[in-house]
Structure formats: structure tokens, C-alpha cells
Design brief:
The protein is of the alpha/beta class. The chain is 24% helix and 27% strand. A hairpin with a 4-residue loop joins strand 2 (21-25) and strand 3. The protein is globular and about 50 Å long. The structure holds zinc ion (2 copies).
Length: 253
Amino acid sequence: MRLIVLGCGGSVPDGSRNGPGFWIEGEEAKVLLDCGAGILPALPRRVRDWTGITHIFLSHFHIDHVVELPAILFALEHAPGIEERTAPLEILGPPGTARLVGGLESAFERDFTQQRFDVAVREVGPGNAHAIAPGCTLRVLSVPHTDESLAVRIDERGAAVGYTGDTAPSPDLAAFFRGCDVLIADCSLDEPSQGAGHLSVEETARLASDASVPRLVATHLFPGLDPAKTKKRLEAAFPGEVQVARDGLSFDM
Ligand SMILES: [Zn+2]
Ligand SMILES: [Zn+2]
């Protein structure tokens, strides 16, 4: 599997990072996790054959994670060569995803699901592994952020990548991510803050340690959190490999 960071910021732009968006490419599955601001133009810049996208996963409905969903669907509709495409596209997300897509359709007076290829919405919940391609599954965990918020992991043939989405600390996270090769984790806060709905630097490091993952990619840093200093703090509390996400970062697992 390949991971490409398309955007690692949050709701407030700082000029160097797009909103949240991560490209996960398996043998057949091509999955976009979240659709933050700037993800649409990042797709053709960072991904070869981005129009072959098979799944879009929404972690939750905060605007910084979903804002470019309609723009991506609209662009796909008009992409050169798309008339050749027959493979379906699935939009995965928490319960309420169909309502969100329906709301966008009425706001823009378009039927996004009526394309030359099938576009379907699948609402997913914790528990079962959802098959998304041969040998490739997606699992979710409810996390404390908004009512619908989900963390997600994608497993394919022995490789796995996990993404917390936005989350406050939760005792369930570490077990959920155990066995992942890479953990992309919320690392928004300088210090823990009750009610903020996000992880602080040390909480992020503790999660990665407790999950025993070999590699941590810290993301969603709030403006003002210095990447170099954050990396040092993470490394002090987590024995694995640490990367503070930057747009364009990519690697294979
Ligand atoms: Zn966010
Ligand atoms: Zn959020």
C-alpha cells in the first residue's frame, strides 16, 4: 500500500498546508480519506491517475474534512477520459453521510450519484470489517469528537494504515490501531485541553506507543505548533519512527 499526504492542516489555513486529505493506494483500492480545502487541486499534482479513485471516506462532517467533496465529484464528472470508466465509486462515512450528500445535491441542484459510472453512499459503523476491494478491508471506530466521528483503518494483505480523524483521547484507540504499519494521528494541541476534542502532542505520542505501531505521522497541527519542536517532543515519548506530516509526504508500506 502507498500513502500520499495530500493535506495535513486543519480548519485554519497557514499558507503551507491543505486541509485534511490522505490518499491510500492498494492493489485495487484507491481511497481518499477526507476532502479538506485544497485536496482537489492536490489530486492531479500528487496522484497518478487520480480519476481511478474507488472510495472516498469521510471521518466526520466538520467542514474542514468534507468541504471539497462536491468539487471532487463535479471534477470527476468532467475529467478527460472519464467516459471510459465503468468502475463504481463509493462514498463511505458515518451514519448521516447520505443526508450530507443529499443536502449538497439540493444546495447545488445536481445529482452527484448520477454519473457515467455508479456512485453509491455506504454508511459504515463500528464492528464489522467492510470489504472494499479483493483482500482489502476498512474498519471504523467511534471516537470522541463529534457524535458521528470515526477513526478508520485499512488492511490489505498484511499491510495496514490507520487514521484517527479528529479525536480526543479515548481508551479504545490503541487497541484499534494495533498492528498498523503507519498511524496517521491527530496532533492538534500544544497541551491537553478538556473539551477541545483533539489530541495534544504527548497524547498523540502515548497513543502511538500504546498501539505499538512502528511509524507515526502526526497531522492536523494547529497553527502555532512548530513542526520541528513537535517532532522532538513526539520522539521523546514514542520509540518508533516519527514524521510530522507535510503535504506531499509519501511512502510505501
Ligand atoms: Zn479537523
Ligand atoms: Zn473535526
